[in-house]
Amino acid sequence: MAEQDDVEREFDIRWADAAEHKEPSARARMLAARWKENPPGPQPFRADPTPAAPRRSSWVSTTIVLGCVAAVIFLLGYAQYRSPY
Questions:
Q1: How many whole angstroms separate alpha carbon 24 and alpha carbon 11?
Q2: Neighbours of 46 (CB within 10 A)
Q3: SS3 for 17-42, per residue?
Q4: Taking residues 16-39, what's their average pLDDT?
């Protein structure tokens, strides 16, 4: 029974969260020491590493779509015209 009390006391997360002083993680301490000697330069938020390729005009896309629709309508009409029924 005493062993369970020790385990509960050791891993009591509420007690740890209520601590007044929290020690930073090892990575945070390492970065703070590194940046104290050599601070990082400013960087844009989520910068794109490569520029995007130029996009086609919306008119070109619209013309392609409407041309395909017209071709399908023409082919369906021609197929219906050629059918004997």
A1: 19
A2: 5
A3: HCCCCCCCCHHHHHHHHHHHHCCCCC
A4: 87
